[in-house]
Specification:
CATH class of the domain at 7-99: Mainly Alpha
Number of helices: 12
Order of helices and strands: HHHHHHHHHHHH
CATH superfamily of the domain at 7-99: Leucine-rich Repeat Variant
Number of strands: 0
CATH topology of the domain at 7-99: Leucine-rich Repeat Variant
Radius of gyration: 20 Å
Shape: elongated
Amino acid sequence: MSAADAAAVVASPLDHLGDPDAAIRRLAVSLLAGRVAETDITDRLLALLADDPDGAVRAEAAEILGAVQAAVVVQALLASCGDEDPRVVEAAITALGEQPPAAAIVATVTAAAIDGGADKLVREAAVAALGSLADPASVPVLLDLLVAGPPQIRRRAVVALTVFDHPAIEPALRAAATDRNPMVREVAEMVVGHQRHDAGAGSLEPPG
């Protein structure tokens, strides 16, 4: 993409959503992020998510559509979780994490999180999305992943669990602070340290 091409896309992104160059289409989609809630733009992005031949363009559309809370968007994102390109699935899962935690969304994201055969980045996105959705039913799943998942999933589970209030979480995070993997230990130690600090601050009496 030349500088002149890029400037033309910036000046009028809508006019370039059908460009034969996938890089130009992707740039055009990204430039519409601030206008995604406009009905005509939402419709154009939904069409790209469903039909664009380039996975990077579909992924960009999925990511941006997460900001729109509408049934038609949710259905499109759920459908995109079956896309052949893992970049699209990752983006769709992340976008679903921005939606209200409807049962179908939580079920789809949970399935991706526990699928040991799924793309690594898709699983990581799913675990993060469970934290974003903050559905209490996800706590047992995240606790299991904290124990039995691969290191990058255990690390994501630590962060995701911080949004929940459940009696099993604190001891699980303390155990994670002794995890055999340094990446997991580091983030768990940080979370546990913050919890101790907050608890200590809360116990201080105000000055007389």
